[in-house]
Amino acid sequence: EGVTTEKECDASFREPTEQATQPSAAADGLHAQGEETPQSPTGFYMTKSMLKPSHVSLHLNPIVNLEPTRVHAMDVEPSSLPSATQKLLSFFTLCVRTERDPSRRLTTQQLDTTRFLLALYGVDAFSWGVGSIFSYELVELAEDMDLCYLYIALSMAAAEILIEFAASSMTPHLFTYLTDIESLNPRGLVAFATHAYAFSNLVALAVYPPLFLIIYIAGFKNIAVLILLAATRTIQYAFLNQIGDAAIEMSIVGWLATFSGTMLCLPSDAISKCACCSTSFQLVRKSDDTSLSLYLGFMRYSIFFFIAVLYVCVRGSVATRWGFGVLLMLFNVACSLQLLRSLPCILGGIEDKDTVAVEPDNARPRTPPNIKECMRWNSMRSMLIDDGNK
Question: Nearest-CA neighbor of 312 among 175, 113, 129?
């Protein structure tokens, strides 16, 4: 007597959820089928993402994740972006996509902004493909001239490191000089990076095709052409594109406030639904400093792999190799200009450090997510050790 059994605890845990949504059988069916429950007359709902085992917190604190939430009116606001930009964002977020966190308020502009930032990260990855293609062209040209291609490759790698270091060091000064903004804020840095990527891709499209005509159509293969191609590739990718990369790296510090209230989905709903089964497979996590860096890195290397596979398939012929490079440059220019066109609609959703709402003094201080995880796992470890000792 006086001791609560495990079944009674489980019953008391399920009771508030059952009253707000459906009987427990419906919740059990969600685990088995992976489907969403229909909205109840009380205005509460339960989503599939709350019941997924990919959340570490589901195993540790299920009451928080299974707590019913209300549907906010702002969740159904239409997007203000052009339809072409929406399709472009859908393409770039096929691998990693942001969705609303059902327990948080999030406007459509904020959601579009997070996807815009992911697309900007993807444009940088496609620009890497153009730079890598013409690094290989340098090696091919040196080999045709009976030069040591290993010496050319090492020289280009060393020059690229030096130029990228110089470009990264100059980026803050260029930002303040070209924008007349004294403080480095995430909103201004994202706009600056978008312009830098667009300019770099336009330079690539304007310079590389004429070099193809000089080398392979006119047949000029000499030291002067080799130096011209090396200098063009160094200025276009190692300098201009690196300015955009440095601006993005400096603005990532403020991305956490912008991504707050979103869930990171890997992959997106468009490719996660398998035709041979009724359920979908996704890795879903709340956006924090750890998950955001991991998902961005996975997205970047997935694009690298995609471009590398396509290029290996077509590099056997000069025509197909350069054709693939020109198509990639046209794609980069079109994407950069479209993102640049939609930039005014996006900047309002980027949180600046000085515009983040300040909490009251009596508010409970927030612990960083990584410290929370460590504390949670340490408490679990202590409990396991005590149970083992008993």
Answer: 129
Neighbour-count burial of 7, counting CB atoms closer than 10 A to its CB (0-12 exposed, 13-18 middle, 19+ buried): exposed
Determine the Cα–Cα distance for residues 129 and 253; give it in Å rounded to an integer: 26
Q: Which of 16, 46, 17 is nearest to 34 (CA)?
A: 46
pLDDT of the residue at 207: 92
Residue among 370, 368, 366 at smallest CA distance from 358:
366
**75: DSSP letter:** G
Name the nearest CA neighbour of 157 among 254, 252, 233, 71: 233
User: Which residue type is seen at 325?
Assistant: G
pLDDT at residue 176 tops 50 = yes
Angle CA(343)–CA(346)–CA(349) in degrees, nearest 5?
150
Q: What are phi and psi of 356, to 5 degrees?
A: -70, 135
Q: Calculate Rg over the CA atoms of the chain.
A: 26
- CA atoms of 189 and 374, how far apart (whole Å): 33
Q: Give the count of alpha carbons within 13 A of 94, CB side only.
A: 8
Query: Shortest CA distance to 127 belongs to which of 296, 243, 294?
Result: 243
Instruction: Give the pLDDT confidence of 7-58 residue by residue, as tens digits.
Output: 444 444 444 444 444 444 444 444 444 444 444 333 333 344 443 433 333 3
Please identify which residue in the block is written with the tokens 């693939």.
324
Q: List, for residues 157-167, the tens digit of each pLDDT value.
A: 899 999 999 99
- How far is residue 241's CA from residue 237's CA, in Å, rounded to a whole number? 5
Give the DSSP letter string of 296-326. HHHHHHHHHHHHHHHHHHHTTSHHHHHHHHH
Separation CA 158–CA 49 (nearest Å): 47
Beta bridge partners, 283, equal 266
Q: Is the pTM of this model over 0.90?
A: no
Q: Reduced to 3 states, what is the DSSP secondary structure of residue 283? A: strand
Helix (H) / strand (E) element for 44: namely strand 44-45
pLDDT at 295 over 50: yes
